[in-house]
What we know:
This protein is α/β, with parallel strands linked by helices. It has helices at residues 14-25, 40-45, 47-58, 62-68, 80-104, 157-160, 177-188, 208-220, 261-264, 344-359, 388-394, 407-411, 441-453, 458-463; strands spanning 5-10, 30-34, 108-111, 114-118, 121-124, 129-137, 141-143, 169-173, 192-197, 224-227, 231-236, 244-245, 275-279, 284-287, 289-292, 296-298, 331-333, 373-375, 381-385, 397-404, 418-425, 431-437, 483-484. Helix 1 (14-25) runs parallel beside helix 10 (344-359).
Amino acid sequence: MAFDYDLFVIGGGSGGVRAARVAASGGAKVALAEEDRYGGTCVIRGCVPKKLMVFASEFAGTPDQARAYGWDLSLGAFDWTAFSGQLNTELDRLEEVYRNLLKNSGVDSFDARARLTDAHTVELSTGKSFTAKHILVATGGHPVRPDMPNAHLGMVSDDIFKLKKLPKSVLIVGGGYIACEFAGILNGLGVNVTQYYRGAQILRGFDDEARGLIAESMQEKGIDLHLGTNILEMAPASADHSASHAGTGSDAAMGAPVGTTQDLLPGAEDTGEPVWVKATNGSENVFDAVFFATGRDPNTADMGLEEVGVKIGRRGEIVVDEYSQSSVPSIYAIGDVTNRVALTPVAIREGMAFVETVFNGNPTPVDHELIPTAIFTQPEMGTVGMSEEEAREQEPVEIYCTSFRPMKSAFANQPDRVLFKLVVSKATRKVLGCHMVAPGAGEMIQLAGIAIKMGATKEDFDRTVAVHPTMSEEIVTMREPIRTA
Ligand code: FAD
């Protein structure tokens, strides 16, 4: 049977664009449909704008430190309008880069929503239909609000990048990396930040000591973190709900313009007032904005997937095998829509492994082991491999760990501490996990990740000469385990 295309990709995000481009460069006839903006979550409403906001927020700490080093520096007001204008220009530029990458690789791209009508046919919202030998679903995910009355009054991560003004006070609900990163960002930008997390500690799944240090540091920097706490009720603030206003009178909002939720979310329903919140700890407060960072679900709804026989899992994800093939042989899926490891470089890897498997005749399973990753909290965390808690469930381990005030903060008499930790197998001496909480930890873990992926032992670390004077030299100079488990 002759098909219109060898490959039709649905979704122009990190995974979809890479797979389309690599397949087309290898000679395949490829089309891609994107219903929103090219670049997807990472470029438009995830990693990239978030990291730029991290950079913006980190300047808040600069003058204090600079003064200790002899500079006469003071902090002026942060201008959200100027920053977000510049941010949008940058995102427009990046979107254009993505469009051109596809065009220059010979991919036909369609600005349309796509759904499946059979195992080889894609129907677009423009009314056109195309057949393809292979279909790759790379539709990503979306943020979800909790299922409770008035949850629509809260924003989600997609909304943050579209704010017209910064709120004076915000309640962040959640304890995952997105919640904690935005707590640091908004706090740095001068917003009065309260964070509720229903669990006993933030950043579930990461190493306990690292999470503990990050939580303490966040509190030291002024984030009002409440663990074991959740929203019980929320409503538009009104005369009936005259609890204390978390933003009123705060001098933490360094020049940030006061906003109401109406200012914040143009077009959003029923957000004319700040939000009254009753918490599970009994407290009642009014916040200018509530931000739910309470998870993401895969984008599989209304795409005809189940109708054509694609198996969908409990979280709404497309169920795939190690080659990213779904239960329908011509349909593959990569990235967040498969709910495996929701990270940009993983979606890209899965896209490349798909092309290698399907178009280059070289079946390539995706390697999800020992993925280094960074959490852009303030302080930042870099991590690879198992946490101490995970590793000791598996085998006897030795723990090497140090936490101290680095030279730069000690000189400025600032409290910031860093942490370097290795989890080592007693039997094989291999480093099973490496966790760092420090400025630049995301950059450092990329390199430590190579050694650990290669199977480095503790003795390999020890044989490596320290780089002096750095914080990270501690990673090769920790001689005695602090405990065994
Ligand atoms: P996406 O990039 O989400 O792309 C999917 C695309 O498909 C979207 O453009 C969507 O519009 C389109 N689409 C959906 N349905 C259809 C349809 N039916 N028809 C046509 N088009 C459709 N990862 C990191 O590695 N590091 C980070 O620091 C990081 N920070 C993040 C911060 C935030 C706030 C968020 C939300 C995510 C972050 N991530 C980070 C995760 C990362 O963004 C995702 O893992 C990555 O973008 C997934 O890529 P993808 O190709 O699977 O999907």
